[in-house]
Amino acid sequence: MKIYGLHTCQEAIQENRYRINKIYLMKNKKYPDIIIKQKNIIYLDKKQFDELFEYQVVHQGIAMEVELYNTPTISDLKNVSNNYVVAMLDNVTDPHNLGAIIRSAAVFGIKGIILHDRSSCKISGTVAKTASGGLEHVSIYTVTNLSNAIRELKEYGFWIYALCESGNQYLHEVDITGKTCLILGAEGSGIRRLQKENADFIVRLPTSNKFSTLNVSNAAAVTFYEVFKQYGFNYG
C-alpha cells in the first residue's frame, strides 16, 4: 500500500506497525530527522514524484510503500478487556468518509473498525491521508460477512448497537460502556436489514426536527464522542 503526506508518514514510522519497503522524497525539500534517518529512501524530482500517483493528491513531497506487520482478525476480539469499543461500517464506500471515521475513532479512543471485504472501500493512501495519522492507532478488521461477525462478537460478550434514524432510543439514553460494537451505515442506503435484526439495540442521535440527516463520518464523530463522554472523558 502507498501512503502519503507528512503527518501520515511520520505517524507510520513512529508507531512501527508497518514494514516500510520504500520512502519517496522530493529533491530539494527539508524533512524531519525521523524521516531522513530511515532506510530505502528514493529521491525524485517533482515530475517523477507526481507520476507515483494515478491522480492528483496533496502528497507534501513524501510517500511510502508499506505493509502491515500483522493483520488483525475478528477472533482477536475474543479475549479483549471488558471496556472495549469497536465500530462496524455497513456500505461505507467513500475513502474520505472512511478516513474521517478512522480519525475520529483515534481521537475518541475507539479500538477498531470492522469492514466488509466487498461492500466497503479498501484501506488506501487516500484513506490514510484523510485519517491524518489515525490509522496507526485503530485496528482494522476485514470480514466476509457482517452478520456472522455480529454473531461472533455476541459470543465474545459484545453488545451490538445499530445507529439508525428509526431507532426507538437515543444513543445517550443507553449504556455504551463495556464490550460494545456500534454499527453505522452510509447515508442513503443505511444499515442493511440483517445487521439491524442482529443488533441488540436500535438507537438514534438527537437531531433537529427540521433537518435530521448527517453524513456518516459526522454521525460517527458524534457517536464516538458520546462513548468518550460515558467513560468520563478517559478512554482510549
What's the topology here?
Elements: E1 2-4, H1 6-15, E2 18-26, H2 33-36, E3 41-44, H3 46-50, E4 62-68, E5 84-90, H4 95-107, E6 112-116, H5 125-131, E7 139-143, H6 146-155, E8 159-163, E9 169-170, E10 179-185, H7 193-198, E11 201-204, H8 216-230
Parallel strand pairs: 2-3, 5-6, 5-10, 6-7, 8-10, 8-11, 9-11
Antiparallel strand pairs: 1-4, 2-4
Helix pairs in contact: 4-5, 4-8
Question: Summary?
Answer:
With 236 residues, this protein is of the alpha/beta class.
How far is it from the N-terminal to the C-terminal residue, by CA? Answer: 27 Å
Number of helices: 8
Instruction: Give, in order, the helices and strands.
Output: EHEHEHEEHEHEHEEEHEH
Radius of gyration: 19 Å
CATH architecture of the largest domain: 3-Layer(aba) Sandwich
Question: Could you give the order of strands across the largest sheet?
Answer: 7-6-5-10-8-11-9
What does the model show?
The protein is of the alpha/beta class. The protein has 2 domains: 2-68, Ribosomal protein L30/S12 (60s Ribosomal Protein L30, Chain: A); 74-230, Alpha/beta knot. Helix content is 30%, strand content 25%. The chain is built from 8 helices and 11 strands. It has helices at residues 6-15, 33-36, 46-50, 95-107, 125-131, 146-155, 193-198, 216-230, and strands at residues 2-4, 18-26, 41-44, 62-68, 84-90, 112-116, 139-143, 159-163, 169-170, 179-185, 201-204. The protein has a 7-stranded parallel beta sheet with strand order 7-6-5-10-8-11-9, sandwiched between helices. A 4-stranded mixed beta sheet has the order 1-4-2-3. α5 (125-131) links the parallel β6 (112-116) and β7 (139-143). α4 (95-107) packs parallel to α5 (125-131). 36% of the residues are buried. The model has no long low-confidence stretch (mean pLDDT 92).
